[in-house]
Amino acid sequence: MSYAHAGLFCQVPIVSGENSKDFTSNLLHSEQVPPSVAVGVLVNPDFTIQAAGGFIIQPM
Predict the structure, then answer these.
(1) Which among 2, 30, 50, 52 could disulfide-bond with 42, CB atoms 3.0 to 4.6 Å apart, if both were Cys?
(2) Tens of pLDDT along 14-57?
(3) Looking at the whole model, is its pTM more than 0.85?
């Protein structure tokens, strides 16, 4: 996962392959502020997406 910040390019490795943990790690390393991230997807038996959502909580 790469990101640009103030003209710098950095990479944050994938931590677990689980989206929430990887987003949390990326935000922690890039912004150095501990966030709370949760994401979820409800998949139908035919593998279509019924619903998806999530949230990010981060101190200012």
Answers:
(1) 50
(2) 888 887 888 888 888 877 888 888 889 999 999 999 999 999 99
(3) no
Label residues 5-44 b or e (16+ Cβ within 10 Å = b): eeeeeeeeeeeeeeebebbbbbbbeeeeeeeebeeeeeee
| Torsion angle in degrees (nearest 10) through CA of 32, 38, 44, 50 | -90
Return the HEC string of 1-60: CEEEECCEEEECCCCCCCHHHHHHHHHHHHHCCCCEEEEEEEECCCCCEEEEEEEEECCC
